[in-house]
UniProtKB/TrEMBL annotation:
<keyword id="KW-0479">Metal-binding</keyword>
<protein>
    <submittedName>
        <fullName>2Fe-2S ferredoxin-type domain protein</fullName>
    </submittedName>
</protein>
<feature type="signal peptide">
    <location>
        <begin position="1"/>
        <end position="21"/>
    </location>
</feature>
<dbReference type="InterPro" id="IPR012675">
    <property type="entry name" value="Beta-grasp_dom_sf"/>
</dbReference>
<dbReference type="InterPro" id="IPR001478">
    <property type="entry name" value="PDZ"/>
</dbReference>
<feature type="domain" description="PDZ">
    <location>
        <begin position="91"/>
        <end position="177"/>
    </location>
</feature>
<keyword id="KW-0732">Signal</keyword>
<dbReference type="Pfam" id="PF00111">
    <property type="entry name" value="Fer2"/>
</dbReference>
<dbReference type="InterPro" id="IPR001041">
    <property type="entry name" value="2Fe-2S_ferredoxin-type"/>
</dbReference>
<dbReference type="InterPro" id="IPR036010">
    <property type="entry name" value="2Fe-2S_ferredoxin-like_sf"/>
</dbReference>
<dbReference type="GO" id="GO:0051537">
    <property type="term" value="F:2 iron, 2 sulfur cluster binding"/>
</dbReference>
<keyword id="KW-0001">2Fe-2S</keyword>
<dbReference type="InterPro" id="IPR036034">
    <property type="entry name" value="PDZ_sf"/>
</dbReference>
<keyword id="KW-0408">Iron</keyword>
<keyword id="KW-0411">Iron-sulfur</keyword>
Amino acid sequence: MAPCRNALTVALLTSGAFTQAFWVAPATPWLHGSRHFSKDVTAPLMATSETTNSNVPPPLTLEEISNKIKFEITDLDAGAYGLESKDVAYAVEIAKVDIPLGGGGIGLGLEELRRGQDGRGCVLVSSLPPEGNAAQAAGDDGKIRVGDMICYLGQEPRGMVRTEGLDFEQTMGALRRFLETGAPAITLVLKRLVFRASLDVSLSYTPGPDEESQGRKAWTQTLPMLAGSQLRKELLRAGLPVYSQDTLRFDQPYVTGNCGGEGICGTCLVQVLEGKELLNEKDEVEAMVTRKWGAANWRLSCRVIVGATNTPGTVRFKLMPQAPFTKKKP
């Protein structure tokens, strides 16, 4: 049975699973939803997109996407949770799109593939009718895609409502309430599951004068890293040196030692020799900590995300570039 735009609900039975498909009343056309229950449910979510990686696998189905995502507690006190990838080959990408609502509503389909007993669910974008406002706003660059999950909706800056990980009824309820305000446009913040590109990361080290006197030599090593990797963690995993034992801490300038990856001690410095465009930008804290060295291409390894644009390529770092300028403490 085909759904009817003028009806609030149309129930369908499909192969042992219950699917509820409906259109929101004529005043808000083209907001279509369906709910599909499987027996192997807990509660996940996310979406698929392509990268420029030549080894990217075929696009995932909605069921495959739901099986690759998991809930993570983001704020225990507030009871807030987010959805992340449980497959190391995939990562979560965040996108935002502004959709005009004039003449036809939003124009997208939603489907719930997993459902918990506590109001959590896996609700994904299941269709984008080409004549709908969502498809028109997405354009050729895919600002919204089949497989995406709506994390926030509303109007910026203060009218955004969190919908990440909510079940079908709560998600549709939030959309309905916003559409009833008569706003001319809606902003959606989306999460999607993307295949992680692979990068070649070259690491080199030049010892300082004190180390040379102890017989330490320069070396170079190349490691493969997946897009989205934190540099410090990858260095530690490979057993490579991260911290300079002779560099005074930024936050406690009278002692050495490190902050354990909090980004405030400034002892895990690296110098970017190639591939700056494949890294994330410095945030305010990192810019403040590295400013004293006066080198724009020096970064904190605990703040560096390799492959931030999910593009394959080569990045070259020099580890502990401050070593030649740091005198060993007696």
